[in-house]
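Reopening: structure tokens for the flavin mononucleotide complex, inputs below.
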Amino acid sequence: MKAIVIYKSKYGSTKAYAQKIAQCLGCEAVDAKSVKAKELEGYDTIIYGGGLYAEIIGGVSLITKNYDLLSGKKLAVFTTGITPIDCREYYDDMVVCKNFKPHMLEKIRVFNFPGKMIMGELTAVHRAAIKTLKKIMSSKENPTEMETMLIKLCDADGDFTDFKAIDELIDYVVE
Ligand SMILES: Cc1cc2nc3c(=O)[nH]c(=O)nc-3n(C[C@H](O)[C@H](O)[C@H](O)COP(=O)(O)O)c2cc1C
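Re-run output (same inputs, fresh job):
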């Protein structure tokens, strides 16, 4: 197997998972900034990781825009975020649907890992975005269960990284 792990990470949580996965697989973890789609032709297994920002997987267009070029390979995408990883309704309806066309999911396996959000580390723009999101959602008269969860998550402040979460991805890649 010739594998590569590619990541886009603003605050380090996705990078930490990428490095751990690469260590387990005995391959390289590379910042997406320095990767061109053409260079991926020589790999048979591609693992892409991106932090979640407003349900968008950072930099995942490297995979989705080049899907036709890459679809013959084993493909896994992982995300890191603060939404509880067992909250499938949120993840499947809002993250997976937004980032992938349905046919891509026949080839791409998607995994979600707990990330980190430390308020003191966020840029002023990101802190303001979280504050605004909380204000908008809190102003709703009858928030749905999911909105109530998202309002609570705006107050998350911590590192929820759990490297045990990668086991499922590793099993998929080596199977
Ligand atoms: C502005 C902003 C928006 C975010 N949006 C989401 C989101 O939609 N879903 C989620 O689960 N986490 C969200 N998060 C949390 C980040 O995804 C989480 O902190 C992640 O671990 C960041 O990855 P990184 O450290 O590799 O940059 C958001 C964080 C910020 C600051």
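Helices lie at 13-25, 61-64, 67-70, 88-99, 124-138, 145-153, 167-174. The two ends are 11 Å apart (CA to CA). Marking as resolved unless the reporter disagrees.
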